[in-house]
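Customer escalation, tier 2.

The customer says the design service returned an amino acid string that "doesn't look like it belongs to this structure." They asked us to rerun it and document both sides in this ticket. The original structure tokens are below, unchanged.
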């Protein structure tokens, strides 16, 4: 195991578009789950809306990259309203059921061949970064030190991601310190009490769902800046990864999700180091190839052998005793048989002596 390589890859993943995308998604989920108490299980769906909204706007409609990003964020607003209108008036788990189902339906729509010309089906979308890289103001060369070394094409999306993350953190921090944020935390604790004070709980929940969804979609956009848009990325496990980040950093905090994204061990750059396939034991390899079982495994002998053993033995015994002879006990032990009166395999504590 090369610990130097593990350290370098872990350190380099701290500053990457993947980490920034996770941080944005966790920050948006923190608004949903940590501040408003909304159990959103469709984080992968919001990220897919941002990623594919950005890619489709460039490839299909020919928008510039900055306008495509705005269109993707507006698509996240529409997606949040579609999910929120029928569910936010209900309690608890209904939003979780609707969001996780909507995210999976959206992924299947991206996989279907009916819209292959637009979504790319299972192959995804690629080749949309030309306009974005053309707007790169960073001169050619290598930048950074140690494990954090990037060329101009790698550094440009990281800079954009850090700027978006800083703006999102500043926005959430200011909103949570405002009266709006205090009402939102009151809804999380006891929405009936807030409703009794004359506040429109549904409107506040919808605003929180839209704002958090836009931030999550921004994470999807940043993710596609460093890679292609592929439907295999936006699966249900991505939602649980983001929940892990939020819980690691602190659900009801502003800066906690960002720190959780840095600490999260499941980032893609480090996944290959954690996927270790155990080598099967020699006995298991022989068993898997159709050979005989290992000698240590107790196997019930055939019926004919058991009958011959019973006929040759005047007394049935499960352990060495005065009523059994050494030959009978050796026969039972060599065959690995079970006692007729017990379902437990016979394992003697010691080899019997020549005189029972």
């Amino acid at each position: 195991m090369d610990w130097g390589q593990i350290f370098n890859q872990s350190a380099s993943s701290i500053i990457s578009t993947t980490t920034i995308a996770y941080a944005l998604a966790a920050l948006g989920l923190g608004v949903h789950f940590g501040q408003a108490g909304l159990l959103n299980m469709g984080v992968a769906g919001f990220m897919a809306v941002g990623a594919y909204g950005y890619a489709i706007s460039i490839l299909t409609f020919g928008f510039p990259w900055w306008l495509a990003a705005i269109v993707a964020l507006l698509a996240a607003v529409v997606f949040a309203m579609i999910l929120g209108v029928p569910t936010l008036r209900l309690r608890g788990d209904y939003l979780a059921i609707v969001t996780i189902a909507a995210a999976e339906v959206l992924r299947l729509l991206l996989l279907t061949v009916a819209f292959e010309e637009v979504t790319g089906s299972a192959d995804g979308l690629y080749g949309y970064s030309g306009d974005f890289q053309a707007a790169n103001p960073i001169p050619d060369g290598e930048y950074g030190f140690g494990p954090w070394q990037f060329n101009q094409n790698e550094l440009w999306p990281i800079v954009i991601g850090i700027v978006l993350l800083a703006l999102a953190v500043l926005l959430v921090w200011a909103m949570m310190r405002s009266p709006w944020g205090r009402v939102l935390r009151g809804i999380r604790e006891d929405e009936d009490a807030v409703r009794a004070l004359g506040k429109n709980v549904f409107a506040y929940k919808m605003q929180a769902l839209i704002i958090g969804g836009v931030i999550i979609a921004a994470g999807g956009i940043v993710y596609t800046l460093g890679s292609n848009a592929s439907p295999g990325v936006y699966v249900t496990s991505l939602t649980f990864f983001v929940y892990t980040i939020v819980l690691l950093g602190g659900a009801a905090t502003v800066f906690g999700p960002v720190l959780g994204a840095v600490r999260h061990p499941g980032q893609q750059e480090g996944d290959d180091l954690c996927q270790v396939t155990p080598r099967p034991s020699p006995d298991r390899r022989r068993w898997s190839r159709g050979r005989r079982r290992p000698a240590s495994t107790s196997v019930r002998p055939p019926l004919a052998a058991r009958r011959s053993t019973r006929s040759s033995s005047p007394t049935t015994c499960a352990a060495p005793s005065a009523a059994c002879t050494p030959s009978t006990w050796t026969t039972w032990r060599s065959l690995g048989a079970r006692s007729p009166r017990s379902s437990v395999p016979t394992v003697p504590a010691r080899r019997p002596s020549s005189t029972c």
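Tier 2 assessment: The sequence is consistent with the input. The first strand starts at residue 142 and ends at 145. Residues 152-176 form the longest helix (25 residues). Sent an explanation to the customer and offered a walkthrough call.
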